[in-house]
Amino acid sequence: MSTFAFRVELQRDLEPLQALLRWAVEKWWNSPMSPWWDADAKMTLKPNTLTLEEVWWLFDQMADAHVAAERWP
Question: How deeply is 20 buried, as exposed, middle or buried, from its count of CB atoms within 10 A (0-12, 13-18, 19+)?
């Protein structure tokens, strides 16, 4: 299993990602959402589902997923 961490701006930005990836995600975690700053999120993928590059590609295809799609060094 692989765990990926990312950020989202709002709860409404996380919900479409959760819906899109529900088939591949074993577990979700997110910090408390605030109307004033970004929140941290993590997902643990089921084995043999998606690679990090595939997750980024999916995030890039979605509206309002630009924060989640940011690549961190």
Answer: middle
